[in-house]
Write a structure and sequence with these properties.
Layout (H helix, E strand, L loop, with lengths): L2 H14 L30 E3 L2 E4 L7 E9 L4 H11 L4 E4 L11 H9 L3 E4 L12 H18 L2 E3 L1 E2 L8 H9 L3 E3 L3 E2 L8 H14 L3 E7 L3 H17 L3 E2 L2 H4 L6 E4 L11 H13 L57 E4 L1 H12 L2 E5 H4 L5 H8 L5 E5 L7 H8 L12 E5 L2 H5 L2 H5 L9 E7 L2 E2 L5 E2 L5 H4 L10 E6 L2 H13 L3 E6 L8 E5 L12 H7 L5 E5 L5 E6 L2 H10 L5 E6 L1 E3 L3 H7 L6 E7 L10 H8 L9 E7 L1 H9 L1 H8 L15 E7 L5 H10 L5 E9 L7 E9 L4 H5 L2 H4 L7 E6 L4 H4 L6 E10 L4 H7 L2 H10 L2 E5 L1 H8 L5 H21 L5 H13 L2 E2 L2 E2 H11 E4 L39 E3 L1 H9 L27 E11 L9 E7 L12 E4 L5 H11 L6 E5 L8 E5 H8 L8 H7 ...
Parallel strand pairs: 2-8, 3-4, 3-10, 3-11, 4-5, 7-8, 9-10, 14-15, 14-16, 16-17, 17-21, 20-21, 24-25, 24-27, 27-28, 29-32, 32-33, 33-34, 49-50, 49-52, 50-51, 52-53
Antiparallel strand pairs: 1-2, 6-12, 13-22, 18-19, 20-26, 22-30, 23-25, 29-31, 30-31, 34-37, 35-36, 38-42, 39-40, 39-48, 40-45, 41-44, 41-48, 42-43, 46-47
Helix pairs in contact: 2-7, 4-5, 6-7, 9-32, 10-12, 10-17, 19-22, 20-21, 22-23, 30-31, 30-33, 31-32, 31-33, 32-33, 37-38, 47-49, 48-49, 49-50
Length: about 1350
């Protein structure tokens, strides 16, 4: 049975359960032959049969009544909007179960009623009443009236018989029900299939004859009536001078209703769970009958997805004969349902499962892991399931490891998966792999790469975006017509699963980019994987054909003159829904970006197209985007002079979310050239909103309940705001709609159910404190139910509502309910193991409370118990289900608030916060592994450790040159104690950057260093900050603590006071990793603190962690102050914090020239957080405060900055700011060589800073070197001293001939760059240009030459 028919059948069954009063049964009045009843003519006195009155026209002069039959249907809301916009009222004669079930369209019917439009009766089933007996006619009247009582709280006074057909029985029953019968005198003809022009002609003809009044018949079940005929009719009738009214108005200003009251039980409007109940009745049989059997379907929870061993969502037996490795029980997916069925999970889960099952290795990059993608693959690998998986770091050149793997013998495999490597990386991480993508070897069965790219990243503001702007840089080196790399894009859950399969079935390397911002994370029914593998590699076209997909997806007007082209993404799907069948407008969605198929593009576009509008995801206004060039090249030029005009529009990451939720705004931005789209025709889904803590499983449990039914499509999307509430708050949006509504199924959740839109039919608050802080009630539509899970009385609920929230309840006529979860759970938990039983019960009790509200009127408490019994069995955590249900009934109460009375004088009310999506939902907290811990000691114990330190400080048996243990025993570096002799500021004190020069005396320390090496500074924390922390933390700074040394020290320890440890050893003011938050979580005594720490430490809490770490720049002490209930002991704290790591600075001196001395060039690092708090770099602050004579612990670190082996080789140095440090050492060394009469080659020095007068570092020395000929040529760039900014790359371009000959000639010059990363591309370009223009190379040859110089250590970069 079709899903839509099934829903209507259930609606009929529901209505049949509404009994007709016994007093009306069998009552019959014979009023004669129905064919003898004449119709009332225009202007005649109404004809009466008994007490019934029949009108065939209006009686009020110059009035028009526009009526609509057969609803409520999906177009009713738009019809109401059109009428409201025109300032007129219409009349709707509605059925209970005709084109749709009245309970399925209750919200549009309520809106029509509340907007002042008249609602009349049109029977329940729309039968020809003259063919029915008395009791059946009575039932038709009574059932529709009962539904209207419940939905709008009114008894209609007017009735229209279906087909205009009635007899004496009909009129008598209508009279018994107090109804007036209404017919019509103008029929638009829409119900018999007449075209639009015919319907419009009926109105034109009426206006031409200009009757005294018009009673027009239309049907709201046709889109042409709603969007074309109605606006036309309103205009022509208004132009003719008619006034408009309801039917009650036009027949003599009668009352439209016999009585009105508050709507009855509105809960019948939630039909979809009744569907679930019916399906369970059908599928599970006697398990729904109330049996006490403990057996049945396994318990359903948020974890019931695709994890190994979990049950299928389909209660029927699974199919046999599947031999795809992915679907074997030992691999991440369970044995699937039959082919073509679905799995209740997320598309992201399916992608990971496919990757783990069909690859030899999986590489999960940290940027993807930050957004919760890749964790399962790592988990499966650790359990011995699927492919071996390992974590990787996303950074420049990160993809080179993949190249190495593909090019190695281990890249191949004889397994079923072949030599397929999978990698998970976000779009920004993909951009860092551009070099790898450009150098991929040809794919083969022994070596093929599949990149699964979850499209989600973090904006600078901290919010998440699905922007694909990184694709341009990522694919810069990949030819658009490359046949070795396929780039696929998906934007819906079903499409994501299909293209994930395709990426493993094709012969090419593959990049599959899917929407992880929303659709891939939706909990929904995802298509089961098809058997595309195991048959050898297929061509991309062949795989797409098997999946019924194309390179390009066109929708809209077949004769459109304007076509919008954009990448497949949520924005594309939102535009598709918004454009619909708008005249003159089309949409082309790019599903396959590489290889770019120009022929397929031309075939997909309508021949009528004149303007192509390319909408590109861009990083800035200057970014050309990845799509525009491909489209322009395919359509413009060639032999066709009539090619369409190609326009470009860039969408920034900060704009993407707004355009996705409101695509009409994007179309407006493209106008005036792009025509306006027609009004939205999409059927609107049911919308439920759940506000919970990030760890709550209630919404997932409810979604799984709906997913048991094939007759309703279920989509749950969870989003988290980590910053606006302690511990974070999650908004779960649940959408329910018909499976036949394909347009609704493809449209993004953000488009159908916007965060700020008051659309929710049901709102649940599992975190009641949000009522005081957040505008959660603003998401509810008028008449919605609101469930607050809290132990509150009516008075307590009222006290928790801010005045604005109270006003919202009244304005929207919200129905409030409270549920005391704790009371219900504690009353049920057995005395033994009460806490465990309570936790087990929590989720189920909340589900029961939800169902109790949802199923009132459809079996009530009995129906709830049936549904829960079918899922969980007859016992929950040892508690009989019947007892659990009764406990819920006693703890669930409706709250009626007193009328809101605004105070005349009141303090300005605090604005309620809005929800912002900045974090993907939380996951499990990692467990802290225990290692030897610090311990607080008495002075006696400390004395033992100091006197007998050989027992705890064990020297290395392999290192004869042991460093003094008392110096820095916690570090494995060889350390030296040097003395500060000079600390001199180089920039003026009025300048905003403090750049200073340091000199250290190394005499007697044995410290030796080579040119270009770095000096490690083992800095201390600020003394006063440490003392302030000790006071706040409540610890005695003079207490002694012994600290274990790192692994490999075989139990060695060292001893200091708490103050010394926190100042000199523990990195108290350093940046905490996620593991610190995870370790604090179980130590927190306040639940909110524990949940917040747990959430931040999860993989999916990465956006929160990133903001706290990179934007707020919190340190360990800040976190402890933020969550004071997490208070580890001082010894635990030292263990959690770890040791201060040395900071390394390039040495700015040549030991050959200066002797027992080492120089540094340092700039202080300080900044202000968004909250206004000052921050300082720990080590630069320490160095800036050094006094002459102060001792400093240092170590030496090798560097890539080395002089060439031949002193005659030219040296080209480019330094920015403090990047000049190693080059000062080079210049000192060359000056020393010159003094020793050692022949040397030319030395070229480029230096860049902002102002010569303030930041010409070592300027006097450099000028002296220039005069003495040590520096052969200098290019000094001070960017802010000239009107046009000049940087070192500009100086290098001017010296192109010299550089080209030095680097490309026989002298084998060496180029060094030290400083920030930003000028690297421009410097590289300047060098390539010099080699092309003066080295006699082609560009590609020049680029390859520079790459070769890197291998020869002649192109050396030290950037940060």
């Amino acid at each position: 049975m079709r899903a839509s028919a099934f829903i209507l059948l259930l609606c009929a069954a529901l209505a049949s359960a509404t009994p007709v009063p016994a007093a009306l049964k069998g009552k019959r009045l014979n009023l004669g032959n129905p064919l003898s009843i004449p119709l009332t003519k225009r202007g005649d006195v109404p004809d009466k049969r008994g007490e019934a009155t029949v009108y065939t026209s209006c009686v009020v002069d110059n009035m028009v009544a526009i009526t609509f039959d057969d609803g409520p249907y999906i177009y009713e809301q738009d019809i109401v909007n059109t009428l409201n916009d025109a300032g007129i009222k219409g009349t709707f004669f509605v059925n209970g179960n005709n084109w749709d079930c009245i309970y399925d369209q209750y919200s549009s019917l309520q809106n029509a009623y509340w907007s002042g439009h008249q609602i009349g009766s049109h029977t329940w089933d729309h039968p020809d009443l003259t063919t029915l007996g008395w009791d059946d006619i009575e039932s038709e009247f009574y059932r529709i009236e009962d539904a209207l009582h419940k939905i709008i709280g009114a008894q209609p006074a007017f009735f229209r018989p279906p087909y205009g057909s009635y007899n004496d029985d009909v009129l008598q029953i209508a009279a018994e029900h107090g109804m007036t019968v209404i017919l019509w005198d103008l029929d638009s003809g829409d119900s018999v299939g007449e075209p639009v022009w015919y319907s419009e002609q009926q109105y034109d003809d009426a206006v031409s004859s200009h009757p005294d009044n018009v009673l027009a018949l239309n049907h709201e079940t046709y889109d042409t009536t709603a969007y074309q005929v109605l606006p036309y009719a309103i205009k022509v009738l208004q132009d003719a001078g008619y006034t408009f009214g309801t039917v009650a108005d036009c027949v003599g200003w009668q009352e439209p209703y016999q009585w009105t009251t508050k709507p009855g039980s509105p809960d019948l409007k939630f039909l979809h769970l009744i569907v679930v109940l019916a399906v369970l009745d059908t599928v599970l049989g006697d398990k729904m009958s109330g049996s006490d059997s403990e057996t049945g379907t396994p318990p359903l929870s948020a974890a019931t997805t695709l994890t190994p061993g979990s049950p299928s969502s389909d209660p029927s037996p699974p199919a046999k004969g599947w031999d795809v490795p992915l679907l074997k029980p030992s691999l991440p997916l369970p044995v699937p349902p039959p082919s073509g069925s679905t799995l209740p999970t997320t598309a992201a889960h399916v992608v990971e499962a496919l990757a783990s099952s069909l690859s030899t290795h999986v590489f999960a990059y940290d940027d993807a892991l930050h957004f919760g993608f890749g964790q399962q693959a790592l988990g499966w690998s650790s359990e011995g399931q699927g492919a071996k998986a390992q974590e990787m770091q996303a950074r420049t050149g990160a993809g080179l490891a993949l190249l190495g793997r593909l090019g190695s013998a281990s890249g191949g495999s004889t397994s079923a998966a072949g030599g397929t490597l999978s990698a998970f990386v976000t779009p920004p991480g993909l951009a860092l792999m551009s070099q790898t993508l450009a150098l991929l070897p040809p794919p083969s069965q022994a070596g093929r790469l599949v990149l699964q790219v979850p499209a989600v990243s973090t904006e600078p503001s901290g919010t998440l975006t699905a922007s694909l702007s990184a694709l341009g840089p990522a694919l810069a080196g990949v030819p658009s017509d490359s046949q070795e790399l396929a780039v696929l894009l998906s934007s819906t859950p079903a499409e994501t699963a299909l293209l994930a399969q395709a990426s493993y079935a094709i012969a090419e390397h593959a990049i599959h980019i899917f929407d992880h911002h929303s659709s891939a994370r939706e909990l929904t029914a995802v298509p089961s994987p098809q058997q595309l593998v195991g048959e050898g590699a297929l061509s991309l076209s062949a795989v797409l054909a098997r999946l019924d997909l194309e390179h390009f997806d066109y929708s809209g007007d077949a004769e459109a003159e304007h076509v919008v082209v954009l990448l497949n993404s949520p924005l594309a799907q939102a535009l598709k829904a918004s454009i619909g069948e708008s005249k003159g407008l089309g949409l082309l969605v790019v599903r396959v970006l590489r290889p770019w198929d120009e022929l397929a593009l031309a075939a997909a576009l309508p021949s009528s197209v004149k303007h192509v509008h390319v909408v590109d995801h861009v990083q800035s206004a200057l970014d050309p985007g990845v799509l525009y060039g491909d489209v322009l090249g395919a359509l413009v030029g060639g032999a066709n002079p009539d090619h369409p005009i190609v326009h470009r529009y860039g969408v920034l990451p900060s704009e993407l979310s707004a355009y996705t939720s409101r695509p009409a705004d994007l179309l407006s931005a493209l106008r005036p050239t792009v025509p306006s789209p027609a009004k939205l025709h999409l059927p609107q889904p049911k919308k439920l909103a759940f506000y919970t803590t990030p760890a709550s499983s209630l919404p997932q449990t409810i979604a799984h309940t709906f997913l048991l039914s094939n007759s309703v499509s279920t989509r749950l999307l969870s989003s988290t705001d980590a910053f606006s509430h302690a511990g974070g708050v999650s908004l779960h949006r649940l959408l329910l709609h018909r499976p036949s509504d394909s347009g609704t199924a493809q449209a993004p959740v953000d488009y159908l159910f916007r965060l700020e839109q008051p659309d929710a039919d049901f709102v649940a608050l599992a975190e009641p404190a949000l009522l005081k802080s957040h505008a959660v009630l603003s998401s509810a539509c008028k008449g919605a139910q609101v469930l607050v899970i809290a132990p509150w009385s009516a008075e307590e609920l009222l006290a928790s509502l801010p005045p604005k929230a109270h006003a919202t309840v009244e304005e929207k006529q919200l129905r409030l309910y409270t549920f005391d979860l704790r009371k219900a759970a504690e009353a049920l938990a057995p005395s033994k193991g009460k806490q465990e039983a309570q936790e087990e019960l929590d989720t189920v009790l909340q589900l029961i409370a939800f169902l109790r509200l949802y199923l009132v009127g459809a079996g009530g408490e009995a129906a709830v118990e049936k549904v829960v019994r079918a899922i969980y069995g007859s016992s929950i955590g040892g508690v009989p289900l019947t007892n659990a249900c009764k406990a819920v009934w006693k703890s669930l109460h409706e709250v009626v608030l007193p009328k809101h009375e605004p105070e005349v004088e009141v303090e300005k009310e605090k604005e309620l916060k809005t929800f912002e999506f900045n974090t993907i939902s939380a996951a499990t907290t990692p467990v802290l592994s225990r290692t030897p811990v610090p311990r607080v000691s008495s002075w006696h114990a400390a004395a033992k450790l100091l006197l007998f330190r050989e027992a705890t400080l064990i020297p290395s048996a392999t290192d004869p040159k042991e460093q003094p243990a008392a110096l820095r025993p916690e570090t494995e570096d060889g350390t030296y104690l040097v003395t500060c002799t000079v600390n001199r500021r180089l920039t003026p004190t009025t300048y905003d950057r403090n750049v200073f020069h340091l000199e250290f005396d190394t005499a007697g320390t044995g410290l030796k260093y080579a040119l270009g090496e770095a000096l490690g500074i083992h800095g201390w924390n600020d003394e006063q900050e440490v003392l302030d922390f000790c006071e706040w933390y409540g610890v005695d700074p003079n207490q002694v603590i012994s600290v274990p040394l790192p692994d490999g020290s075989r139990g060695a320890r060292h001893t200091r006071t708490v103050f010394q440890t926190l100042q000199q050893v523990a990195d108290l003011f350093g940046k905490p990793p996620k593991s610190f938050y995870a370790a604090l979580s179980p130590l927190a005594t306040e639940r909110a603190h524990s949940m917040a720490l747990r959430f931040i430490s999860s993989a999916e809490g990465s956006a929160t962690f990133k903001k706290l770490s990179e934007v707020d720049t919190l340190n360990f002490a800040d976190v402890l102050r933020m969550y004071p209930s997490a208070h580890p002991s001082i010894e635990e704290l030292v263990e959690l914090i770890g040791f201060i790591k040395p900071r390394h600075y390039s040495i700015a001196s040549s030991q050959a020239a200066v002797g027992d001395r080492v120089d540094l060039l340092v700039v202080t690092v300080d900044w202000v957080t968004p909250s206004g708090s000052p921050r300082y770099g720990q080590c630069t602050r320490y160095l800036a405060g050094l006094k002459e004579g102060q001792k400093v612990t240092v170590s030496i670190k090798p560097s890539v900055m080395k002089l060439p082996p031949n002193d005659l080789q030219p040296i080209i140095m480019a330094g920015l700011g403090t990047g000049a440090a190693p080059f000062r050492a080079f210049m000192q060394h060359r000056a020393w060589q010159a003094a020793q009469k050692i022949p040397v080659g030319p030395l070229i020095y480029y230096f860049g800073s902002r102002h010569r007068s303030q930041e010409y570092l070592y300027g006097e020395e450099i000028e002296a070197y220039i005069r003495d000929g040590v520096i052969s040529h200098a290019g000094l760039a001070f960017s802010r001293d000239t009107k046009k900014k000049v940087y070192i790359q500009h100086k290098m371009q001017n010296d192109g001939e010299m550089l080209g000959k030095m680097l490309g000639g026989e002298d084998k010059g060496v180029f060094y760059l030290c400083g920030p990363t930003w000028p690297v591309p421009d410097v590289y370009e300047a060098l390539v240009k010099s080699l092309v223009e003066y080295g006699g190379m082609e560009r590609k040859e020049a680029e390859e030459y520079l790459e070769a110089l890197k291998e020869e250590e002649r192109y050396v970069l030290e950037v940060y």
